[in-house]
User: What shape does this take?
Amino acid sequence: MNIFALSTGRGPSGIAILRLSGKDSLQISKLITKKNDIKSKEVNLCKFYDPSNGKIIDEGLLLWSPGPNSYTGEDLAEFHTHGSNAVVSCFLRVLGNQENCRLAEPGEFTKLAFQNNKMDLIEAESIGDLIHAETELQRQQAIKLIQGNASNHYNSLREKLVKSLSYIEAKIDFAEDDLPENVLKEVQVSIKQVHKDIKQILEDQKIGEKIRDGFRISIIGDVNAGKSSLLNLLSKREAAIVSEQEGTTRDVIETYLNIDGYPVIMADTAGIRKVKNKVEKEGIKRAIKKAKDADLTLIMIDASKKTINKDLKKLINKDCILVFNKSDLSKKPPKNEFKENDQILISVKNNKNIDNLIKTIKEKLSKKFMKSNNILVTRERHRAKLNAALKEIEKFLKKDQKKEIETAAEDLRLATRHLGSIVGKVDVEEILGSIFQDFCIGK
Assistant: This one.
């Protein structure tokens, strides 16, 4: 079966690219272009026709890549047409009318690439991440994964386990023979190193997932300190209601932001104060919880006040940024004992010193999360498999390999399988659907 799809976005555009993959793609291309001399290493300038009536659809370019030297590993044709809805709709209808041709499912082109060994699972997933990347940090992470940094490391760990397992199985199969006495000792050293490496990867504060999904930042502080106004200013829209009336914000309001290349989910919360109103009290409770769960907290304080709210002081820790708003009313923040914290004087009203706040947020996130380790776990599936492999290795290390050598070998076999499933070295059909379903059709 041949599959086809529009690979560029819908809507009027200068160019649209339609892909066709399958064993009949060259024959179908010849039928649509009325050309028999389609070249594989050149750009073919063609007119495209509807084979059913001979009428011209458009004029454009055809790129032809015979398998296995193509994105999918199959024969692949790319039709570059003008991007009007009329041209695209007509071309898709023509392709759909050809024998053994159907519209591709989401992610099916990349799924074929994986199944034809053009890429492994991590590289396939990272293409999905690159498609959905909205910030520079997300783009950089996806590119690193596509280049195979993580895949090579996981494969290296797996190969060490496979080698150790082969020694143990040799010991089981040839028990009567004299194998070198240091074999099991060498296995122990190698397995302990793999165990150490996996633990180090997992002790990453989930930075990979945070880059994919967004760092969580909470704005917490005094009532009417300007929390909602700051959220609106950074998001460049009226995300939260702003009013001079105290207690306007009673629930958590979240918005996704791109803060100078950093993906951020910023939360505006209820002002901290003593209240009797049950609804506002619940809002304050949620605000405090949000601050505790956040990767970074901005403590918003009215700079015109002489002291800092006592209840607010209890929430300040070394990881917070103290943001003193209303510098248009006070040139100096109130004196305080939090000398170790970053302190910034801003005016949301006059858009003053906001650039410095953004710079400080970036520096804070960078210092807190960015490590030299290039191997980042970007998905829960990877983390679950690494934890499962670690568990099996720990079971192996606790065993007496001389007395329990057969069960110890099974522990290693399972650990190897868990590591292999991250990159697709074992049967992974059951997880393919969940990986590729979020892809665009045509990718």
Q: What stands out?
A: DSSP finds 15 helices and twelve strands in the chain. Residues 427-431 have pLDDT under 50 and may be disordered. The CA atoms of residues 318 and 340 lie 7 Å apart.
